[in-house]
Amino acid sequence: MSIPYSYFLKDSADEKGNGKEVKGIISYANNELLFEFKVYNLQGSSTSNLNKFSIDIDQLKEVNFKKGFFRNNLIIEANKKAFLDPLPGSNQGRIKLIIERAYKNEMSDFSERLNLIMEKGKVGE
Prior knowledge:
- This protein is α+β, with helices and mostly antiparallel strands.
- It contains one helix and seven strands; from the N terminus they run E-E-E-E-E-E-E-H.
- The strands form two sheets. Strands 1-2-3-4 form a four-stranded antiparallel sheet, covered by helices on one side. The chain has a three-stranded antiparallel sheet with strand order 5-6-7.
- The longest helix is centred in the C-terminal third of the chain and has 20 residues, at 104-123.
- The mean pLDDT is 88.
């Protein structure tokens, strides 16, 4: 299952108010959380090539899906800050993805499944 996400880069706004947005797809395969993404300016033009990044589920500390009326967020936190560094805008080993309302149920199932997998790994330690 692949679910689209987006988020804005907070530190990228210049004096003209131009900023950047990251749009991508998150999925899970072979005990890895996979990210594919591109960076866009606020006019909608791509400013990067397609980037791919994966993190082993064992390196995740927490995956939390927060449902909201207007916006749904998936918050991912790694055991160490460096594990999420390849994602633009990750802060202190944490990233907050915006999930469209149309994918709310799929993301709820996705995050529950990830948390179950993470719990099984911790039980085996």
